[in-house]
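Milestone 3.1: sequence recovery, worked example.
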C-alpha cells in the first residue's frame, strides 16, 4: 500500500504564495500524479496533473498561477501556488495512479 503525505499548507494573504509537497512511500517514476482540492460545502475538484513523462495539465481556475512538478529521485510531487485568492481556500489532496492512492490532505487558507 503506497502512502502519500502532503505538507506545506497554511494561512496566507491574498496575492501570496505557498508550495505544497506530496511525498510517496514508494517510487513514483512510473506513475501519474496530481492534485485535487475541496472547499467547504463544495465537491472535490481537480486542480492539476503531471504524467510520468512530465507533461502537465491545469484547471482553468489555476492556469497561469499554479505550477505542478515532480522530483522522481525524491519520490515527491510539488504544487507551487502563486497569486493566491480567497477562492483557492480548500483542503488540497494529492493522488497517484495507477492504484488510486490518496493523501490525507493539507489545508490552505487564503485570507487577510
Amino acid at each position: 500500500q503506497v502512502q502519500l503525505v502532503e505538507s506545506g499548507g497554511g494561512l496566507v494573504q491574498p496575492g501570496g504564495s505557498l508550495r505544497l509537497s506530496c511525498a510517496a512511500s514508494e517510487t513514483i517514476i512510473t506513475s501519474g500524479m496530481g492534485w485535487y482540492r475541496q472547499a467547504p460545502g463544495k465537491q472535490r475538484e481537480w486542480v492539476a496533473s503531471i504524467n510520468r513523462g512530465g507533461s502537465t495539465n491545469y484547471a482553468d481556475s489555476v492556469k497561469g498561477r499554479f505550477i505542478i512538478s515532480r522530483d522522481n529521485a525524491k519520490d515527491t510531487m510539488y504544487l507551487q501556488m502563486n497569486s493566491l485568492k480567497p477562492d483557492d481556500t480548500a483542503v488540497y489532496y494529492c493522488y497517484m495512479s495507477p492504484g488510486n492512492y490518496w493523501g490525507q490532505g493539507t489545508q490552505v487558507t487564503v485570507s487577510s
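The CA atoms of residues 60 and 106 lie 22 Å apart. The two ends are 40 Å apart (CA to CA).
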